[in-house]
Amino acid sequence: MSRDASTTQTFADDDYVFRMGWGELEQLQEACDAGPYVVLDRLVSGRWRMGDISNVIRLGLIGGGIEPVKALKLVRAYVQDRPPLENLVLAQLVLGAAVAGAPEEEVGKKSEAPGQNDPTNSPTENSGSEPSTATEPSSASPPSRSGE
Q1: Which range among 28-37, 98-107, 117-126 has the greatest average pLDDT?
Q2: Measured torsion, CA atoms of residues 112, 117, 120, 122, in degrees rounded to the nearest 10
Q3: Angle between the 36-45 and 85-100 helix axes, to the nearest 10 degrees?
Q4: pLDDT at residue 19 in the model
Q5: Which long-range contacts (CB under 8 A, 24 or more apart) does 136-142 make?
Q6: 3-state helix, strand, coil in the chain (%, to 5)
Q7: Residue 96 Cα to chain centre, angstroms
Q8: Nearest-angstrom CA–CA distance, 64 and 60
């Protein structure tokens, strides 16, 4: 995903850029008779309708720069002529990127506090102190007396 809410995904016969801008989201709303977030909720919760999947993918292709006629041909061949679950995840990804955008943090960005999340970095690792292996006597039992 990128900052313009586009995502490149393998679909049909190639890798395609999918993007749903304001105009595509309005068209989706008209086609599905529901707002974009309602459609996304249906896609994620399993209450989707057939048109939810095909319209998201078609409009995502158009918003990504594919000519509308080619987008329609691709959707007819690779969505409408296939089992719906084959394209459900793609529709979720495309619409999710459109309504939520991309994460603010870049992948691979270093943490500001190095070593904070490193499980191999122990705060006492280089302290110079001998590790303690002896156990402390329990305060619940009285100390033993010699000679008893």
Answers
A1: 28-37
A2: 80
A3: 140
A4: 96
A5: none
A6: 45, 10, 50
A7: 8
A8: 6
- Please give the pLDDT value at position 122: 46
- Among the listed residues 28, 86, 48, 27, the one whose alpha carbon sits nearest the alpha carbon of residue 77: 86
Report the 10 Å Cβ neighbour count for 104: 6
- As a whole number, mean pLDDT of residues 4-32 equals 95
DSSP letter, residue 130: P
Q: What is the DSSP string of 5-72?
A: SEEEEEETTEEEEEE--HHHHHHHHHHHTS-HHHHHHHHHHT---HHHHHHHHHHHHHHTT--HHHHH
Express as a percent the part of the chain with pLDDT over 70.
66
Burial annotation 114-128 (CB, 10 A radius, 16+ → b, else e) = eeeeeeeeeeeeeee
Report how far Cα 146 is from the mean position of its chain's Cα atoms: 67
Say if CB 5 and CB 98 are below 8 A apart. Answer: yes
Look at residue 129 in the predicted model and tell me its pLDDT.
56
Q: Structure tokens of 128?
A: 């110079």
